[in-house]
Amino acid sequence: MHTLPATHLELAAWLRLSLAPGLKPEALRLLLSVFGLPEAIFEQSQEALAEVAGEVAARAVLAPPGPEFDGRLDAVLAWRESPGNQIVTLDDPAYPPALLMMPDPPPLLYIKGRLDLLHTRAVALVGSRSATPQGIEDAQRFARELSAAGVTIVSGLALGIDGAAHQGGLDGIGGTVAVIGTGADLVYPAAHHALARQIAVQGAILSEWPLGTPARAANFPQRNRLIAGLVSGVVIVEAAMRSGSLITARLANEMGRDIFALPGSIHAPLSRGCHRIIKQGAKLVETPDEVLEELGFAPRPLARAARTGRQTVPLDHAGSRASTVRGSASPGSSALSPKPLDPEAQRLLAALGHSPTTLEILAARTEMGDAALQTTLLQLELAGEVTLLPGGRFMRAQHG
Q: Where is the Smf/DprA SLOG domain positioned along the sequence (predicted)?
């Protein structure tokens, strides 16, 4: 290792420990609790280290750093010098207190943006990458209202529900934290580059992975445990039966966090994971207020009437705006229209989701003009793909 100023020596020791192959976080925490700072650990004999944390950990600590270590250290020091970038070690007073309650807190955290957001009341909003339009709207609305109450929104920067949660969190005073499964110098998925830049300025991006670490499937369950560790509760918006969001929920439950889930249609595949965890004891929630109340957080500082933005029409309130579409054929007339749906009709069907939806909401989701929207709805109705409900609402037809 090359000669370093005294101010860099401690970080170098932390980095060496964090990169030591085979050194598990639990073992590292044991060593730190007995010997203190990393420099003191490196001064111990193998026998002394093994007595505390076992032979494997002792060998991992005392193995000399590889030839690439100096280059990695230089990269970390250079990254830390960029505006907004910070590295927080396990003994730093700035380390997120919620993570210290975990059995395996990361020795190093790479943070871009507002460090203060890692010390606030926080709720995770997570869900499917392949979210429905309704799921996207629900995630953004829940995140916006929770953030308006001063609650920080934590999610994983994935496509779908995560991205919508971050967008909603940025709209309020609570802000948002993205916990990522790559190095803090990378953005995954690439489609979220602009969102990541916005979060780095207005919120915070957090990673425990060394700089340059690419996206690997095995990283994301580990990332999920940090999401669970940072928050008081986890809200699952949409999830299939085999979903990473359910891993987050399980980890959060093991840490004593509250678990919430939004219910959905029994016909919607992305409702099944939510229904499953509700059966297992998660709290069914329909409004952000229910989350705030369950967690004992103060009510929002802004009155409900002061909010702006579109609101989803509740299922127990019929839409007042009746559609002019009144196809004479019943849903059963699909046999008369065997032609495949055109791309515009397929797009509208995807926007419909699995819940009753008004014409106004469909117009907002698809950005289609009134004439095109009504013509396409009529096509779908005649094809037996859409059912018109009382009150001017539409619903995907149930087949079989």
A: 86-295
